[in-house]
UniProtKB/TrEMBL annotation:
Residues 140-206 form the Thiamin pyrophosphokinase thiamin-binding domain. Pfam families: TPK_B1_binding, TPK_catalytic. PANTHER family: THIAMINE PYROPHOSPHOKINASE (PTHR41299). InterPro entries: Thi_PPkinase (IPR006282), Thiamin_PyroPKinase_B1-bd (IPR007373), TPK (IPR053149), TPK_B1-bd_sf (IPR036371), TPK_catalytic (IPR007371), TPK_catalytic_sf (IPR036759). One of its GO terms (molecular function) is thiamine diphosphokinase activity. Its EC number is 2.7.6.2. SMART domains: TPK_B1_binding. Keywords: ATP-binding, Kinase, Nucleotide-binding, Transferase. This is Thiamine diphosphokinase.
Length: 212
């Protein structure tokens, strides 16, 4: 099972949702977008402060599994949705509509990619928009496949220094390099092989795959 979560970010940043399989979760105004796209909403979360009264009535008419919360709370609507999704133990979680709007929301959503790791859960989470796919990986060895649609691959230390980074199969290879958190050394790399290998001994690495 795969779980897709759609938030209420700007529509121009959201890719074609019909290209992705799995269950769909709507967050706040993202619920309205899913309904209008003709996509069945398996579950919905939000305080719905970004929709008008008649839009909320429309949502309630089309969604059975609707969880509403007051605007004044300790977790964002997206965090509530991700916490629920992690507990379902899916094979993957994809997040859409999480970029292109307010920067505080964007950075909070980036931080939420770390949530499974904090609970020692290995479910992978991706933030996807029309331009990028963003994910986090922990120390170890990882295989990445070439995707000409997202040919640029950047690696950014997410939590302190990344130690012993080795990149094989890339245009700009590395061997056992330590990458401090302020470094831009690993921006805009590319795979030159069908499969690349990423390995490092310590730290957490943000991986961003981007289109031209």
């Amino acid at each position: 099972m795969e779980i897709n979560i759609l938030a209420g970010g700007p529509l121009e940043h959201i890719p074609s949702l019909h290209s992705f399989s799995g269950e769909w979760v709507g967050v706040d105004r993202g619920v309205l977008t899913l309904i209008k796209e003709g996509i069945f909403v398996d579950k919905a979360f939000g305080d719905f402060d970004s929709v008008m009264e008649e839009e909320l009535a429309f949502i309630k008419k089309h969604v059975d599994e609707l969880q509403t919360f007051p605007p004044e709370k300790d977790e964002t609507d997206m965090e509530l949705a991700i916490s629920w999704a992690i507990k379902q133990r899916p094979e993957k979680i994809r997040i859409f509509g999480a970029t292109g709007g307010r920067l505080d929301h964007f950075f909070a959503n980036i931080q939420l990619l770390f949530k499974p790791m904090a609970f020692h859960n290995t479910v992978p989470i991706e933030i996807i928009d029309r331009q990028n796919i963003i994910s986090l990986i922990q120390a170890g060895t990882h295989i990445i496949e070439r995707n000409d649609e997202y040919k640029y691959i950047s690696f950014i230390p997410f939590h302190g220094e990344v130690k012993g980074l080795t990149l094989i199969g890339f245009k700009y290879p590395l061997t056992l390099r330590h990458i401090p958190i302020h470094s831009t050394l690993c921006i805009s790399n590319e795979l030159i092989s069908d499969i690349g290998t990423i390995s490092f001994s310590e730290g957490i690495l943000m991986v961003i795959r981007s289109r031209d």
